[in-house]
Prior knowledge:
By secondary structure, this protein is α/β, with parallel strands linked by helices. It folds into 2 domains: about 1-145 and about 315-340, Medium-chain alcohol dehydrogenases, catalytic domain (Quinone Oxidoreductase, Chain A, domain 1, Alpha-Beta Complex); about 155-285, NAD(P)-binding Rossmann-like Domain (Rossmann fold, 3-Layer(aba) Sandwich), CATH 3.40.50. It is built from 11 helices and 15 strands. The chain has helices at about 40-45, 95, 140-145, 145-160, 175-185, 200-205, 220-230, 240-250, 275-280, 295-305, 325-330, and strands at about 1-10, 15-20, 30-35, 60-65, 80-85, 125-130, 130-135, 165-170, 190-195, 210-215, 235-240, 255-260, 285, 315-320, 335-340. It is globular and about 65 Å long.
Amino acid sequence: MDVQGLIVTAPRRVSKQRLSVPEPVATDLVVRVEFCGLCTPEQRVYRGTRATYPYWGGHELAGVVEAAPYSPADFKVGDRVAVLLMQRCGVCHACRKGFDNHCAYLHTGSRPGLPIGPGGLVDRIIVPSYKAFRVPQLLSAEKAALIEPVACVLRSIERARPRAGEQAAVIGGGTMGLLHTALLTRKGCRVFLFDDDEATYSQGIAAGAVSCEALSAVEDTQKQNAWTDGWGFDLVACTRFGARAVTLALSALARGGRIVLYQSITDNDDVRIGANLVHYREIEIIGTVAQSAANVSAAVALMAHDHFFLDILRTEIIPASRAEDAFEAALSPQVNRVLIDLRSTFV
């Protein structure tokens, strides 16, 4: 089957290409893609800091079922779906233990003759039905394309185990920091947001933050004591600023507190941690990556009745015919998420 895809061919070069993909098998869905977000991997490849060309990006997508021959999940033509492109075999050790975001077959898929990458920047996509999640029609197509990042943040929060009344710090006022702020607030936490970009502060307050401060304020003992009655933060989510954020989080953590490491760090990720600090203060350092299928279902359920928190994000919608403009806009710190509109032809 022929599809139209957006391929990053070199730094700051995007090509609209017709690609031949395998025909769907009986249990596949054919989804007409409506919107696809540009996340960090696409930005890094386009900027040239991750030189993997040609690259077929896109993993935050939503669309409408165009064909569902023998779907065991009873999908119907016309259903709106979010498409999560991670492999989840359901039978390996990781999947059976509930860690299907670590499926043994996660990185074994290959598409001979096609560019590397998840391949969501396309007008139509063929996926096994388990990769599609039905979305209520009342949720707009634009917001449905944000289900994947929301699911990732829900996993982070699930692993951090926040409790109502806790003092939480979020380091980083970007897209993921704002989502952490909004969702931790909904868990009953008092959230403090830290970022050196003051332009993010109004969004942080709108997301529910009690206060937005410069990054250096994390280790300001006087302020910290005032905010937390001298106890420290019960939970710190590191979404930006690399190893420095982790070091700052350790200095601000309460006894029995938890640090969740959400971000990936592309440069030096070494952090010195005293074993006795962890031992005597009973602190936890928690990793989180991607999302499980259960997290995706939780994101759909949440957004079905409470999607207004997404309005705090500055989104920009750009048609596929202006692909390079979309990638350029995605590099701007003034935009939280660029969504490429794939509903029209690439002309």
